[in-house]
Write a structure and sequence with these properties.
Shape: elongated
Radius of gyration: 15 Å
Largest sheet: 2 strands, antiparallel
Strand content: 5-15%
Order of helices and strands: EEHHH
Strand order of the largest sheet: 1-2
Structural class: alpha+beta
Helix content: 25-40%
Length: about 70
């Protein structure tokens, strides 16, 4: 999902990020969307949530969804 800004949304009770549009993700967008977005794309490292990504080790756990639901309820 693409919003005007980076958002936290809830999917099946789990907090999830909307699509992050920055200099790292723009190259993989369809060409017409990247063109419409222009050259002004915020950086990722200067955002307050930078560095809070879910680590791959958590995603490989069989109880990952339950853990993420509990964390999203706080």
């Amino acid at each position: 999902m693409l919003f005007d800004g980076h958002e936290i949304i809830y999917a099946e009770g789990i907090a999830a990020e909307s699509m992050l549009t920055d200099t790292r993700t723009k190259p993989v967008l369809p060409a017409h969307i990247a063109k419409d977005m222009g050259d002004v794309i915020p950086g990722h490292s200067d955002r307050p949530h930078a560095g809070l990504d879910v680590q791959e080790g958590l995603l490989n756990r069989p109880d990952a969804a339950a853990i993420l639901r509990r964390a999203s309820a706080r």
